[in-house]
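Ex. 9. Protein: Carbonyl reductase 1.
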Amino acid sequence: PLSGGGLGPLLCELQFGSLLVRTQTCLHSDRLDGAADFLVYGSFRSFRDFSFVICCKTNFFSTRDMLTHFLPLIKAGGRVVNVSSFVSFRTLNNCSPALQQRFRSEDITEDELVRLMQRFVAETQKGKHKEDGCLTTLSMIQARSLSKERPNDGILLNACCPGWVRTDMAGDKAPKSPDEGAITPVYLALLPPGATEPHGKFVSD
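Predicted structure tokens for Carbonyl reductase 1:
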């Protein structure tokens, strides 16, 4: 269907969490011929199956590295979608009140978020916290940055929750099929030309 509509989707499978992510990202960037209309990305390792440090490296730091390379390739009028989870909001409640305030602040910068994330990882290793919602916060920061740095380009960047979907991580008891889970991300990726909202939002069904 996408090809019939004149679109040429490119699936990029990156080994997030490894030192190869930067090299792989650059290689895939070359395959995009310097520009992309849409970027839909998701990176999530379960805290049940991996150590907290590995999960944070994958879910936050490697994702940030990837976006550093890919966001400049998004064309004017492009759409960027972070496939996140409602868990990112729920688990912010595990943070201290001070961290919650900064994570949810409208003026938090990406550099500050990275510093907070590093602090958060250190505190979690001491048993003070359990999980994080920093990737969704990163999406909100990057949306503000796009509006400031490319104000006339009309790029919309949002995070979303696809729901509980039958995947290797969620298992076969999840109620949604992969096709059903794709509805919200695809909706955000195909927001019509000229749309101004949503932008910098978290969207779920």
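Check your answer against this statement. The radius of gyration is 17 Å.
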